[in-house]
Amino acid sequence: MKDDGNAKFKLSKLKEAEGHYKDGLSHLETVKNDNKDLRDLKVTLLQNISVVTNKTGDYKETIRNCTKALKIDDKAVKALFHRSVAYLKT
């Protein structure tokens, strides 16, 4: 799903990319085993969603997703950056 989202993003099909990222994230939420790889993928998907929502002007969604990513990994630099951009835009 992440790769599909990345492909759509490269084609500037932002809403489709966002849908793929969100689908991937919802699938990850159903996984019972928690491990570093799973958490890393969640952070990546949340950050990718945030890139898209910043581009589409949905800054509140960006802030929400970046905050979720930072709760998983407080050193997620991309989440810090995109959240700060969203705060500046609002």
Helicity, as a percent range = over 70%
Structural class: mainly alpha
Strand percentage, roughly?
A: under 5%
Question: What is the total tally of β strands?
Answer: 0
Radius of gyration: 12 Å
Provide mean pLDDT, rounded: 96
Provide structural commentary.
The structure is a single chain. By secondary structure, the chain is mostly helical. The protein contains five helices and no strands. The longest helix is centred in the middle third of the chain and has 21 residues, at 36-56. The N and C termini lie far apart (30 Å). The mean pLDDT is 96.
In short:
The chain has 90 residues and is mostly helical.
List keywords for this structure.
5 helices, single chain, mainly alpha, globular, 90 residues
List the helices and strands and how they pair.
Elements: H1 2-10, H2 14-29, H3 36-56, H4 59-72, H5 77-89
Helix pairs in contact: 1-2, 2-3, 3-4, 3-5, 4-5
